[in-house]
Amino acid sequence: QLAELNAQAREIAGRAPDAEKLSQITEAGQQLADQIAKFEVQALAAEENARSVVAMADAAREESGKARLRLASLRTERETLIKLLIGARHTDFPPIVDRLRVKQGYEAALGAALGDDLEAPAAEGAAVHWRHVEVPRQDPALPTGVEPLASHVEAPPELDRRLRQTGIVAGREQGHKLQPQLKPGQRLVTRAGDLWRWDGYTAAAEGAAPAAQRLAERNRLSSLELVEAEARTAAAATADAEREAVEALAAARTEEQRLRNLGREAQGMLAKTRESLTAIERAARETESKLAAV
Question: Which residues of 180-213 are buried (b: 16+ CB within 10 A; e: fewer)?
Fold first, then answer.
C-alpha cells in the first residue's frame, strides 16, 4: 500500500503547475501592466496635444476666412471700378483724362485746373478736342516759389502748356495773395480743388468734381491691383496654413486613437493573463488538497 500511495502522490505532483511557467506568466502580466500605464500617459499627452492643435486649426481657419473675404472684397471693388471707368465708354474718341496719371492727392487740383476740358479727346477728328501746341519760350513764369502742376501729372503733350501754366499753392490765403501776379492764361489751384484764374475768376472747392472723382477712381484702381496681388498671396499663405493645421489635427487625433487602441489591447491581454494565473493558482490549490488527502 505504501508503494501505491507514493505512486499516487507522484502522479498528483506531476500534474501540479510548473513553477517556472507560473513565474513567466506573472512577469508577462507585470510587463503588460507597465505598458498599460505607459500607453495611458502617452494617450493623455496625445489628447492634450490634440486640444492645442484644435485651437491652432481654429485660428488658422479664422485667418484664412478673413483673408478670403478681404480678397473677395478687393476683387469686387476692382471690378466695380473697371465697369465705372471703362464699361460706360462707347466712343471712338476716348477723353484725354483716360491717358493721365496723377500723383495721389492731386486729383482735385487737376480737376479744378481743367474741369470739363478733361472730357475732350486728344484727337483732331473730334469736333471738340485737344491739339498739341509747342510751349513757346516767351511763356511767362509762374509767381516765385509756385510749383507747376505738371510736376505731379503724367500727361500727353497736348496738356503741357495748361499744366505748366497752372501752379500749386498751399492754401486759400496764398492763392488769394498771388492771384494779382498771374499772367494771362495762368491759374493757381490747391490740392483741395480751390481755383484762382489770371482774369480774376475764383472758385472755392466744394466737393469732388466729376473729373477729379474719375481721377481718384483711376488711382484707386491702380493701387487696388497691387493690394489685391498682396491679398491674393496672403490668402494663399493662410489657406496653406489652414490645410497644414487640419492635417496636423488629423494626425494628432489618429495618434491619440492609436495609443488608446494599444492600451485597450494591452488591457485585454492582461485580463487573459490574469485568468491564466487564476487557473494556475486554482490548480495548485487543488493539487495541494489532493496531496494532503493521500
Answer: eebeeebbbbbbebbbbbbeeeeeebeeebebbe
